[in-house]
Amino acid sequence: MTANVFDTLMAGARAAAAAAETKQSPPKKTNKRKLSSSSTGGNKNNKAACYILAPKPSVKESKEITVVKNNEEKKEDENAMKLINFQTAGRIESNIMSMLKTDTEDFEPESMVPCWGDKNRVPFMFLCQIFDLISEKCSQKIINNIACNMLRIVMETTPDDLIPMVYLSANKIVETGSDSDLGVDESLIIKLLAETYGITENRVKDKKKTSGDLGKTAEHLRSCSSQYVMYKPQPLTVVKVFDTFQIIAKLTGKDSEKKKINSIKPIIIAAGGCQLKYIIWFLLQKSKRIGFGEPIILEALGHAAVYYKNPNPKSVDSCLKLKASEIVKRAVSICPVYSKLINVILNGGVWEIPKECGLTVGIPVKPMLSNPIKSISEMINMFFDGKEQICEYKYDGQRAQIHYMEENGKVEIFNRSLERSTEMYPDVLVAISRLKKMNVKSFVLDCEIVAYDCTKQEILPLEILSTRKRKVALNDVKVNVCIFAFDMLYLNGNSLCEEPLKVRKSNLYESFEEELGVFQFATGLITGNLNETESFFDSAINAGCEGLIIKDFDGLYEPNISFYWRKLKIDYIEGVRDSLDLVPIAAYYGKCEGVYGSFLMACYDRANGKYESICKLGIGFTEPKLKEIHSRFQSKVITEPKPDYLYDSVAVNPDVWFETSEVWEVNVRGFTISSDYCAAIGMVEHDKGLSARFPRFIREGDKDPDQATSSNQIAEMYKEQFAKSTQ
């Protein structure tokens, strides 16, 4: 008979098993449900596991269970872990697991080898116990030690298992850039548990309501199940579980749900102890955070790589580990494929990574992200020395990375999350191939894909773009898009990530032809002046954008958040305590011919009876509102400014002047000392006034012009703001 056979406890089944043993023939087929596993996930010499579910035996019958083993199987068991029972199969002693908390410089990976033997694969139970270990109240240093020591054990004992170990430890299932995912939701898990434990789906749902978690629900159902595993399955390994997830991720189309359930069921049945809840949590990727997370694992991998095959581990210092972890993190940002990185570490060492793991066309790069500007003082500091920077519109669309391959002219598009979205934009594929210049053979382009109204030549909101299906044929495209390109990461076989922005921009502009509404370079302004930046910000908002990205011309391309790029949105900047009541004293024509687009606003100096210019207001108006204001103010237009208007005739040069007649409520984000505006002039600094930053129209008020916010109030608000910024 095969190894680890549990005789069925029903009389007929026992008799059949005994007869089969006497005749040395296979046991008779039964009508009991069978589940087969295609892979043992353990030693390659082990036989494939076969699981038979039957009613759970009584206590009396349990005593009659016998395990028949031949001599060869007994010999194999001498080198295997001692299994106390199925529910705790492969569990490693807690005192041994605690050794993982040891400081990395004092840890000896060889001490853990006896846990699963030299020739066996890493047990999945080992990984689950580590997850349990880090779920306890541990300091960050202890968690880092556990992660590093765990990887060192695998590298020293079972290096072939390092790739799945790193993926699962980082709670990552599919390869970066893949358009596949597990495609498993709670409804599928409920159906799976109902089938596995022979109960109704409603019972699973009821228990889930009580426990609040499907992982804990599965553990409860297993403990109460009337189903019994007669043929004990092989212990799960990390490779077996990871390979199963890979199979599931590739199942799509008709009957894919049924196929997924059939693929998952064997590892659910084989999961003993705490393994079951972690498998459920892995399957529900977005519902539960498990593992260490990518940043910790990448740092640990760098540290472990320094120790790997090092004859003198005591010589490894913190500087060496820091350098190695930075190399690993940078490599994953540029080429986020764990398998490639790990193969380099195992075969060439961590110091070979920069040479072997560079940017590869077809593999998405982690995008460079901007750091938000949160205060007016930050803005002032950025432009304090007058250094020129490039300000670009921040478009409200989908971030896209477009890869063009030289070998076959193939184009791939990846979104901000590095997921493949090529089939979503067949029109972009056509445009990008048509508008690249002849000398461009391969490239990686960073851009924003935005919904666009070609008739009105206007940017449309992100909500319009989101109506596009994930897969659409070129003839079925209903939402037109425009590509707004702003960076070039790779060109004709050369990575540009280590080049400054001005070099990358130059390559970008020389590589493509623009076409209005199809492919355009991001609208930008090169300036070192704060006032010019603010005016350009207003233009961006009025053009339907979210704000500005302010970029350092000398900055390299740094995946993840970088201070080389700063994001300016009104929502990010803390506003003043109250809104202001300001008077419109002049106007500028906007993009709609014959209609005012922005207004010169003033506060009121009660002591001198002067209306002092404070800002230019152009945000917060709808198009109908602007038309209404234009019509209403026609009777208030005057040929020249009144004597009680205080303004700088060079800095502010409006198209028309108004009589003071209305007060508008305006929200602002702070104040700066200004030589262009005259609010509270001389109250804070000699011969200079204050200007309101990022004003936004709220509504018309019901006050008279001489009841507007006073110059004294503006000065007090500035002093209050200054005091906060220096605390």
UniProtKB/TrEMBL annotation:
An annotated Gene Ontology molecular function: DNA binding
Cross-referenced PROSITE patterns: DNA_LIGASE_A1, DNA_LIGASE_A3
Keyword match Metal-binding: no
GO annotation terms (biological process): cell division; DNA biosynthetic process; DNA recombination; DNA repair; lagging strand elongation
EC class: ligase
Every ATP-dependent DNA ligase family profile domain range: 474-605
Domain of life (superkingdom): Eukaryota
One Pfam short name: DNA_ligase_A_N
Segments of this protein annotated with the region Disordered: 14-47
One Gene Ontology cellular component annotation held by this UniProt entry: nucleus
Catalytic reactions of this protein: ATP + (deoxyribonucleotide)n-3'-hydroxyl + 5'-phospho-(deoxyribonucleotide)m = (deoxyribonucleotide)n+m + AMP + diphosphate
Protein name, entry field: DNA ligase
Source species of the chain: Corchorus olitorius
